[in-house]
Amino acid sequence: MLKFDSSPRRATNLSLNTGLLDAARQLGMNLSQTVNELLADEVRRRYWAKWNEDNQEAIAAYNDHIAQHGLPLAQYRNWGQSAGDGRREF
Question: How far apart are CA 39 and CA 20, in angstroms?
């Protein structure tokens, strides 16, 4: 999910600050690659922020269930002693 590396590219027009654009060019930056990577990072960040927001109720319900009943399959652990909430006590 959310993999952009193999997607085809499309030409687009951007309006950028001229001073910033000149500095980037002087540094030899590949603008297309830089913008593409930064945009992909921001899309991923916003996607997961929205996912967390959309699923907040389910996440809270799951966390409440774990708090009340412990982790599923905790009884089958063979390392340490489980407190039932994912913590190990030695």
Answer: 17
| Element at 81 (helix H, strand E) | strand 81-82
Percentage of the chain surpassing pLDDT 70? 86
d(CA 33, CA 39): 10
pLDDT higher than 60, residue 57: yes
Q: Which residue has the tokens 């910033």?
A: 20
Residue type, 10: R
**What does the block give as tokens for 53?**
């927001």
Token pair for residue 14?
């951007």
Distances (CA, A) of 28 to 12, 23, 82: 21, 9, 55
Domain ranges of the chain: 18-89
Average of pLDDT values for 63-76?
Answer: 89
Distance, CA of 22 to chain centre: 32
> Angle at the Cα of 74 (from 68 to 78), degrees rounded to 5?
155
